[in-house]
Amino acid sequence: MSLLDNWFKENIQGNVVPLFAEHNLIVETFFDKTMQKLKRSNEFDQLMIRTVETGLQKNTWEGLIYIMYWQRNDAVTPLYVGKAERKGVSNPISYNIENIRKNHHAFGRWGYGLAYHIGDLSHAIFQETAYKTPSKKYKKWGQVLFDQFEPPKLREKVYVAIISWEQGMRGPSGLIGSVPSVEKEIIALAGAIDSGKLLNVDGR
Amino acid sequence: MYAHMEKGQLFNRWLLDHAEGNNFLLFANRSPLFELTQGAKEYFATLEKKGEYLYILCTKSGVNTYIPLYIGKTTSPRNRWLQNHLPKLRNAVHSPKKGSYSIWVQTIAEIKHPIHLICIHENSIKYPPIPDFPLTVGSIEYQLISLANDAFPGQLLNFEGVAR
């Protein structure tokens, strides 16, 4: 088993949910004002809310790291790695996670708003008019995750692991790390996996 | 607290082992012109191998300690600097808009020591910065950023994914 698989096994138990509300891989959709959106699963929403609300009660909580993936037999095929930190750029609580229960716009980076994962992915798939054009990044997400867009049918079931991060936790290196540092460790490992499906694009 | 010391040691050990012959002083003068040293111009002209280069913009603290400022990768360090980073730095000096390069300008202005650029071709990589991690250049870029983020908090100009 790889370094990453071992670390996943230790850190994602009980924190894995399907990303989308779907039936036979067809993802449910809804209209948010005039724009069609892919629907997150209830389990995902509950896990995100629980992670953030429980985390914010502790001074030692630093945020969360998430991994979107396909499960193939015993192995994880990582698709995307990201994070939502407790602190914002200029606020003590980041907009991404504040009022999480009602924050469907950002929702820990998985919100329905544009500039957040589900909002941007929906925009890329349904190609509706908005203040910006769909990004190349999310067009790629659409191509990798979906077999067809009308209706939106997944190639495989998509899971997300949400890892609540506290001071003193260790990344795959075995070293204690911050949320952004450990996120990068996971990407460093996931990007080198043969399947080559990782969707993380460094914006540099 | 984090393993600052160990991550810093891993980072510097790797950089010291890979920097020899790949390390040059970058700026003859800084803001507003950001002109390159003659050595930098000559060195860029030699970095034309196929494949990818890692590059680390850094300053030094003492003889054997590098403080990283920016970590990236490119197939052409010359083009990346002459066509991308340098023009953006020069534009940021005069632009009323405050973007990431404004922060580069301000950070560079505050550094008293010389600023180096280290460019390492993927074929020269001897081992990964984090033990048992992959040797691909993409992975190493992320490993270096990961180590630097905790070992040198608040120093990196890589805005994607640095700590707040």
Q: Would you summarize the structure shown here?
A:
The complex is a heterodimer of chains A (204) and B (164). Chain A is an alpha+beta fold.
What gross morphology of chain B would you assign? globular
| Strands of chain B, count | 6
Major pleated sheet of chain B: 4 strands, antiparallel
Which strand order spans the largest sheet of chain A, edge to edge or round the barrel? 1-10-6-7
Instruction: Please name the two chains that share the biggest interface, counting residues whose Cβ lies under 8 Å from a Cβ on the partner chain.
Output: A-B, 28 and 29 residues
Number of strands of chain A: 10
Count, helices of chain B: 5
Helix content of chain A: 25-40%
Rg from alpha-carbon coordinates of chain A = 16 Å
Shape, principal axes of CA atoms of chain A: globular
Q: What is the tally of helical segments of chain A?
A: 5
How far apart are the termini of chain B? 15 Å
Mean pLDDT of chain B: 90
Question: What's the SSE pattern of chain A?
Answer: HEEEEEHEEHHEEEH
Low-confidence blocks of residues of chain A: none
Strand content of chain A: 25-35%
How would you describe what is shown here?
The complex is a heterodimer of chains A (204) and B (164). Chain A has helices at residues 3-11, 42-56, 117-126, 136-145, 179-190; strands at residues 16-18, 22-23, 26-27, 29-32, 35-38, 61-72, 75-85, 146-149, 152-154, 159-166. In chain A, α3 (117-126) packs across α4 (136-145). Chain A contains 5 helices and 10 strands, in the order αβββββαββααβββα. With 164 residues, chain B is α+β, with helices and mostly antiparallel strands. In chain B, the strands form 2 sheets. In chain B, strands 1-6-4-5 form a 4-stranded antiparallel β-sheet, sandwiched between helices. Chain B starts with a helix and ends in a 13-residue tail after the last helix. The chains are: A alpha+beta (204), B alpha+beta (164).
